[in-house]
Design brief:
TPR repeats: 146-179, 239-272, 273-306
Number of helices: 21
CATH class of the domain at 229-305: Mainly Alpha
CATH architecture of the domain at 229-305: Alpha Horseshoe
Structural class: mainly alpha
Signal peptide: 1-19
GO cellular component, one term: cell outer membrane
Largest sheet: none
Number of strands: 0
Distance between the termini: 85 Å
Helix content: over 70%
Organism: Ekhidna lutea
Strand content: under 5%
Shape: globular
Protein name: Tetratricopeptide repeat-containing protein
């Protein structure tokens, strides 16, 4: 019996050693971006006697594979094992923040901030940072708390709660002073109309990191006297980065700012059809329909394959109540792509606006078939038994 007990103990110890070996292998492959191998080894542990560490690494692998729902499930499993695991709450909050579940993100970030005292944290592998850059890196608890404040500040900003956003951006400095802290707060200051404070923060960011692209781009927009460094102007990534920053501004609802970024991109490369198309979209949102239309036309001149420009031109004409002309451009787009429900719907609205209900109902029917929810409601109103 004693011999059996010793053997059982040895087997348990050996099993634990194997589990650690598989975890270490999974983590090594994850760092080398060998996700299939990382998934293979961590799944071995998950199928046996998994712990919080295993689920956390599994979640990070799922994030790298763009499987956010599975990652969320794994982070919840981590919290089940370790209810006060701040890293899991933070990572969960990041996923909710990036998926527009802003209020849930705030709740997760708040949990981290309210439970940080006396907490010990392991090194954390993050999938993204406040600037939108991708990658994995290590951090301390102090640095993590700074980033939690930054993210919660950005979440508050999304909800229009600028006072709490400003408090969080400022609180981040108590834990870490990095360029991103200044850049995030500068963008809020700019939105609040305090350009001088925004410029001061951007200059502070550049004193920390003189090569920071985002700081230079934002400073160039706010301060026309800014002379961009030669390394930036000569960098082949200059124009794509400007368009990316412009796209981020557009997604955040900052349409005027987005147009300015794309204007800078056009100045750097007047042959960039995407910059014209993107600026046109931003201008369309601001109500500058004529200017937007000129940008869409220019994009088509530079690249005739930019068929998206046809329905965007149609949108500018629709807003100007030039419904017949709008229909012409919508039809040109549909001759290339008949699967875009929004264009069928917009064409229907143009026909209805001209009191051509038969044609309008025909296009509403197609929009409805493609899954446009509003179409069925309008059909009941305008189409009767058709």
């Amino acid at each position: 019996m004693k011999t059996f007990s010793i053997l059982l103990t040895l087997l348990i110890v050996q099993s634990n050693l194997w589990a650690q070996d598989y975890y270490d292998l999974a983590r090594a492959h994850f760092h080398d971006d060998q996700l299939d191998s990382a998934r293979y080894y961590i799944n071995i542990n998950l199928s046996k006697n998994p712990g919080a560490e295993d689920y956390f690494l599994s979640a990070m692998i799922h994030e790298a594979e763009n499987k956010d729902l599975r990652a969320l499930a794994d982070y919840e499993a981590v919290i089940k094992y370790e209810p006060n695991n701040l890293e899991a709450y933070f990572q969960k909050g990041l996923i909710y923040y990036n998926s527009a579940s802003t209020e849930q993100a705030i709740r997760d970030f708040t949990f981290v901030l309210e439970n940080q005292q006396g907490s010990e944290t392991k090194a954390v592998y993050y999938g993204s940072d406040p600037t939108g850059a991708k990658g994995t890196f290590l951090t301390t608890l102090q640095s993590m708390i700074s980033r939690v404040y930054q993210y919660r500040g950005m979440a508050y900003q999304k909800l229009g709660d600028w006072d709490n956003a400003l408090k969080d951006f400022t609180s981040a400095f108590e834990y870490d002073t990095i360029a991103d802290c200044f850049i995030n707060r500068s963008q809020l200051y700019s939105k609040m109309g305090n350009d001088q404070a925004a410029i001061a923060d951007l200059k502070a960011a550049l004193r920390i990191d003189s090569t920071n692209y985002h700081a230079w781009y934002n400073l160039a927009i706010l301060d026309e006297s800014t002379q961009l460094p030669l390394f930036l102007l000569n960098d082949q990534e200059f124009t794509p980065m400007l368009n990316l920053v412009g796209a981020n501004a557009y997604e955040s609802g900052e349409y005027g700012l987005a147009a300015k970024y794309h204007t800078k991109a056009i100045e750097a490369n007047p042959e960039d059809d995407l910059a014209y198309l993107s600026r046109g979209k931003a201008l369309l949102r601001t109500g500058a329909y004529g200017q937007a239309r000129q940008d869409f036309i220019k994009a088509l001149q530079l690249n005739p394959a930019r068929s998206e420009a046809f329905h965007l031109i149609g949108n500018t004409l629709f807003h100007e109540k030039k419904y017949k002309d709008a229909v012409g451009f919508y039809e040109r787009y549909l001759s290339v792509d008949r699967g875009y429900k929004n264009v069928w719907f917009n064409t229907a609205m143009a026909y209805l606006s001209m009191n051509e209900n038969d044609k309008g109902c025909e296009y509403l029917q197609k929009a409805d078939e493609l899954g446009m929810g509003q179409a069925s409601e309008l059909m009941e109103k305008h189409c009767g038994s058709q």
